[in-house]
Amino acid sequence: MVFTRTAGPVNFRHINLWWRWTPGASWRDPEGSGSSAGDRHDHPVVHVAYEDVEAYANWAGRSLPTEAEWEAAARGGLQQMIFTWGDEPEPSDDRLANFWHGDFPWQPDGGYGTTTPVGSFPPNVYGLYDMAGNVWDWTADWYADRHPAKVDKPCCIPRNPRGGDIASSYDPRQPQFRVPRKVIKGGSYLCADSYCMRYRPAARRPQMIDTGMSHIGFRCVVRNITN
Question: Which pTM value belongs to this model?
Answer without folding.
Answer: 0.92
